[in-house]
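Standup notes
- DV: blocked on the single-chain target, sequence here:
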Amino acid sequence: MVAEEQLDRFRQSGETVRVVRDGIESNDVLGIVVAWDDSSVVIRKPSRRVVKLSRSYQYLPEPEERPSL
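- DV (later): unblocked, structure below
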């Protein structure tokens, strides 16, 4: 689960994050952290659509290399 402090840093900086959901890169979600609660995170995608994702996924800064699962 992603830490509260890390989510707050992502939100304040406005940097794009990569949400790794499984081993398939095309299933990753790229966007900006908007809000979160105990179990989920709201991400705004470049298309301005908003998605609600589980906090159990891996949240990384977008420029970092994607880990292999």
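- Follow-up: The two ends are 16 Å apart (CA to CA).
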